[in-house]
Design goal:
By secondary structure, the chain is α/β, with parallel strands linked by helices. It has one domain: 4-Layer Sandwich (Metallo-beta-lactamase, Chain A), CATH 3.60.15.10. The strands form three sheets. It has a seven-stranded mixed beta sheet with strand order 6-5-4-3-2-1-15, with no helix packed on it. A hairpin with a 2-residue loop joins strand 13 and strand 14. Helix 2 packs antiparallel against helix 11, helix 6 crosses helix 9 and helix 10 packs antiparallel against helix 11. The longest helix is centred in the middle third of the chain and has 17 residues. The protein is globular and about 60 Å long.
Length: about 400
Amino acid sequence: MVGVSMLRVFNVGQADSFELVPRDGCKFEDSSILIDCGQGSRNVFSGLSKKKVNLVLSHAHRDHIGGLSHLFGESSTVQVEELWLPYYSDEIVKITNFIFSLKGVSSIIGRSKAELELRNTVNTYRLLQEILFGKGCKVIRGIGRGLEMCSHLSILNPPLDPDSALDLKKGTSEKYWEYQKQINYETIKRWLTPEEFKRNWGSFIAEGWDYSVPNLIEDLDFRRRMQFIYGFFYKYESLIDDFVESNSPRDFERVANAVKLTSNDISVVLEYIFDDFSCLLTGDVSRGQLTNSLSDGKNHRIKIFKFPHHGSKTSLDKKVLKSLSPEIVIISHGNGRSGRQKDPHPNFEVIQALDKMNIPTAYTNDVVKNGKLMKKKSVQNPHQYVEIIDLYH
């Protein structure tokens, strides 16, 4: 459909990857906007409709950014025009590296799936340097609420304010930061060995630290970055204490899950509207941050809604669904479980709510519950502006 906007949904299993193809007249008409690239088991770059892309990484989880490795294959001819990252994505990596320096982490290496997942995320994130230098990407942008990438594309999440990003009362992170300085970082010293504190803490809190990508995010100054990190420490201080005292894999899993949930909530939420085409793409945000993203007083009625987090019930908000009034909901999934949950994605409550509200829903794969087929995989074109692409390599 030349000249018409399309949302191409790549079937990447329990992961996300969407190609937004702008129509003629958009600033990005000569390129695609690729939101996430799956976990790496399937090469989404081979299925793109255009060879020039603006790459949006919604957040730093492997099921969204693991496919970056395919950019560097010998057969890859894809040109990354711009790379867009959410505010505080670098801070998530910094926090993750800090977690690996806690007392007792060495005792759970190889015993915790959560530890392996965190390391995979950090290792994958390092590929961003190669995108900038190996693929000739000219522009990297930090994006968040309030930015207009063009007259059709708006960013609704994450917020610039670190307390809002962490769902904390305004001023909390700043006060905790000042408190730690007053007590000479005694809380941090409790978590680290004296050697580790002496070796790394000074550079960790110093302005001008090394980032995984160049700091071109002008709005995100040093103070906001530090507030985000200290806000995380404030919010999850007791969980970190528990692990440092016990050194148990279960307590480490709780800390790792806190990092994961925080990363989910700074996911890019992107709205694209051009004439009669409209879509809302949501990463893995929770219901709280999704509601906050849409609380600007504007009318966000859209045609295509990508349900967050593969159909997780923690992202379900019936009021939001009613206000959006979508013509179709997309759930990208592979019947995978998150953490210790018993009901795989998409959650039964989500499926039930969508059915009761009579909202047409496209599932990228069959939905199977307890060995029984509950919902069939969607057809290739479930909507006039949606195409689902099966990838076999």
